[in-house]
Design goal:
The complex is a heterodimer of chains A (495) and B (436). Chain A contains 17 helices and 19 strands. With 495 residues, chain A is an alpha+beta fold. Among the domains of chain A are: 91 residues, Uridine Diphospho-n-acetylenolpyruvylglucosamine Reductase, domain 2 (2-Layer Sandwich), CATH 3.30.43.10; 113 residues, Alpha-Beta Plaits, CATH 3.30.70. In chain A, a hairpin with a 4-residue loop joins strand 18 and strand 19. In chain A, helix 8 crosses helix 10 and helix 13 runs antiparallel to helix 14. Chain A is globular. Chain A starts with 9 loop residues before the first helix and ends in a 5-residue tail after the last helix. In chain B, the strands form four sheets. In chain B, strands 15-12-14-13-17-18-16-19 form an eight-stranded antiparallel β-sheet, with helices on both faces. In chain B, strands 5-6-10-8-9 form a five-stranded antiparallel β-sheet. By secondary structure, chain B is α+β, with helices and mostly antiparallel strands. Chain B folds into four domains: 80 residues, 2-Layer Sandwich (Uridine Diphospho-n-acetylenolpyruvylglucosamine Reductase, domain 2), CATH 3.30.43.10; 120 residues, 2-Layer Sandwich (Uridine Diphospho-n-acetylenolpyruvylglucosamine Reductase, domain 3), CATH 3.30.465.10; 99 residues, 2-Layer Sandwich (Alpha-Beta Plaits), CATH 3.30.70; 79 residues, 2-Layer Sandwich (Alpha-Beta Plaits). Classes of the chains: A alpha+beta (495), B alpha+beta (436). The structure holds flavin-adenine dinucleotide.
Amino acid sequence: MDSQAVKRTDGWKSRIASELVEMLGAGAVISADDELIAYESDGLTGYRVKPLFVVLPSSTAEVSQVVELCNREKIPFVPRGAGTGLSGGALPSREGIVISLSRMNRILDVDVPNRVVVVEPGVVNISVTDAVSAEGFYYAPDPSSQIVCTIGGNVAENSGGVHCLKYGVTTNHVLGVEMVLPDGAVVTLGGPAPESLGYDLLSLVVGSEGLLGIVTKVFLRIIKKPQMVKTLFASFERIEDAGASVSAIISSGVIPAGMEIMDNLSINAVETTVGAGYPRDAGAILLVELDGPGAEVSAQVPAVSGILRENGAIEIKLAADESERELFWKGRKSAFAAMGKISPGYYVQDGVIPRSTLARVLGEIGELGRRYGLRVANVFHAGDGNLHPLVLYDPEVEGESEKAEELSGEILRVCVEVGGSITGEHGVGFDKKGFLPLMFSEQEIDTMNLVRCAFDEEGLCNPGKVFPTPRTCVEPGMKKPGSETHPAREMGELF
Amino acid sequence: MSHVTELSRMVSNFHVPGSGDADSGVPEFGFSSEVILYPETVEEISRILGFASQKGIRVFPFAGGTKLFLGNPVGAVGAALSLRRLGRVLFHEPSDMVSTVECGMEVREFQNAVGCENQLFPVDPPGLNSGATVGGLVSTNLCGPMSTRYGTCRELILGVRAVRADGEIINLGGKVVKNVAGYDIPKLMAGSLGTLCVLAEATFRLYPRQPFSRTLVLGFDSHVSCSQAAGAIFAADVVPTCFEILDGRLSSEFAAAPGAKRSVLLKFDSFEEAVIEQIKQVREITSGKSASFIEMGDEDSKELWDSVREFPFSSGASFSSKLTLPVTASVEILSDIESDPALSGVTVRCLSRPARGVALVSVDGDGEEAVRAARFLENLADSLGGRIMFSGIRRELRERIKAWGSFGEALFLMKNIKRRFDPGDILPGEKIFDAD
Ligand SMILES: Cc1cc2nc3c(=O)[nH]c(=O)nc-3n(C[C@H](O)[C@H](O)[C@H](O)COP(=O)(O)OP(=O)(O)OC[C@H]3O[C@@H](n4cnc5c(N)ncnc54)[C@H](O)[C@@H]3O)c2cc1C
């Protein structure tokens, strides 16, 4: 792809604008500088790029038409949901078009007997649960941003949440997608059936960070709400003991719905801002949520309490009712926001480590913080080893944001060293593409590129993300294989 | 030097078929190979494929040889690559519940190895006790009754070490349960039938073993009462590990509920009190619907679950098929099949796994009638919004019944993936793709 080669004159730009307006209507094309500002970045506001246009299509056919135009004119395009992403995945391409899916926000079908809800990609995560809650069902993946983020964004990032230890992440709950491929063709992969046959292309699309096409419809699996939910709260003098409890609970045969740890700095930030009733002097707190059939949960509660006690818990509380349970969670859910209150700037990291290395890694993060002279708060999905270290800094202090970024990178190195990953749920995006080689060799990244090329030969779809260096679809030493085109395309059919 | 000689020098063990060595460990399978190679390291596999891809020699990977009847038959290849000598557990960290294993290891052995730590690799594919290997399991994405609770190995696989058709060794995915760095290529390997890469090692998420387990067998007089009961079980606050529905013939043959029109098989694993409570609930919600209700311990139910797990590959039928359907259709198909005249000339057996939307059907019958039955099933899958795969097709029917039903719009993307990964078709693509 070489968009720079094409000369972008003002005349060209206004011609494209009017073509888009004709296609989508004037209200669906944004080109004024002041209106484009809102689309310059995603949740990672440190990176900003002004796009050429933002378009707001309302249907699959419109998305396809826009993509076809982009192909004809060699314009890079970037799909965008709610823009809450934390890896710069929806960062616009220079001279590119942002395709916002926010107007495609209808729930198309609720099929409780088949346990499927079909939605457009702009539907907000929580709306899926809202649509089936009265029937006793819910949509399990619950990112903390669930009242804002979209299903399209969740699919692209393979988002997780606090309950994914037991129930899995987005990929375990997506049964099918309809998508507009990077050349404008429309395909459906999977569907309402829980299983499929043939190559598992769906698993490639989930977590593809918007590089394989634009998802325009999603078949989601819904599950029955558990009969009983019990939440335990425990405080510890040392965070290592909280970590040891997590491993011990799982080894005992119990898989809680979620297990979350917060360290002393996070506890105090939360207490200062929302007052969740956490003990300010504790080294760490651990929340354990158990759910399932009543008799099972009732048997698990004393077993888990015993394990917590054996591992040195100072205080153990079982939420007496729903309001106390909500209070326990309130602190956890407002942790990121609370950091914003105690520090003018913070950088969220998203590394993963094997649970067994928790104590070692937390020690090393503490050491790094001291070395850089920055505070690091730890809030994490402890059950699956997904750390969210929050590196606090002051953007007003010269060089401090760079230091914070560097420290964040060091944390990722530690995660990879102990056998973990550079990202558990926020994605590689623009932000972490330089770190991909920490985990994968050139050949391995080339192998990922084979997947991208099978979907997107031109490389126009969300370019400049995930891959550390630009890669074309003809690599040295690699024969250029012919590509199949969509059969309907060969028949000259237009989408 | 001939290619066979050169390839043979790359490994310490090989076998040239027809040389009179009866104990080659290679079962009867439908393809011919000039040489069978037994690599012992991933580097050997890499050298073999590197050489083969340069020379355009086709290489077919296999291991237990228990599932070679899946997918289209493979034509003649230059070399067959047996993974049997890569059979060790490489890593098992009990507190992380993660393990890495070489792909030639038998699934049963792997389960025993992690079982020592009271952990479970919760996949029970057909062939579990007759040599099915981890690589074969991943490549076929086969699963058994436990998939109701744990999903297929697609849900359990975290990473792979594989060799690309051009000989490049790649490690993809990782060793942690949550990881979104790069495309999820390990899942792509699940079900790819050895057409994309040779799998050398796989890393899986494990589960804890549960302390107590019970099986329930409910017999029904009619499809309607069975279907209502299944709906009620679905809606209840119970979490079965296994949930299967058998048609009348299988109910009798498996001695589940002899004489019943349908039977529902459930297995619960948890703390004892939780299992007992769930059984009580099932009893309450199905009372008045079921004609019989039997509770069994592990020992008593073992034979029954063995039969269920091996179906339909054990039935010796003309062909068997797997349909992937929406949940409700996978229950109603039992009655669709029974009442249709298109199937009146053949003997049909059907098992439904409703939580996975899977129906397994075996058909026994002669020529024309078997073909008609296959067409009927194919159309049925289509009309219900599902997909179908045929396997174990009798030789005389193979011309007329192909392994795969329609892949729908995904086919051209699947072909793109295959061409990107293996432009020279070194790993036989005909397992999945019909010749163009
Ligand atoms: C306070 C806060 C808390 C968060 N908590 C969590 C959490 O607990 N767990 C978690 O996993 N994440 C979390 N996130 C990150 C973020 O919310 C998720 O990544 C979310 O899935 C992004 O959705 P979005 O709609 O905002 O997508 P965007 O940010 O708009 O886009 C994200 C990526 O998806 C692509 N994309 C969007 N729509 C489509 C589509 N239709 N087709 C193809 N590609 C598309 C974009 O190109 C981009 O690469 C949090 C973020 C914030 C700000």
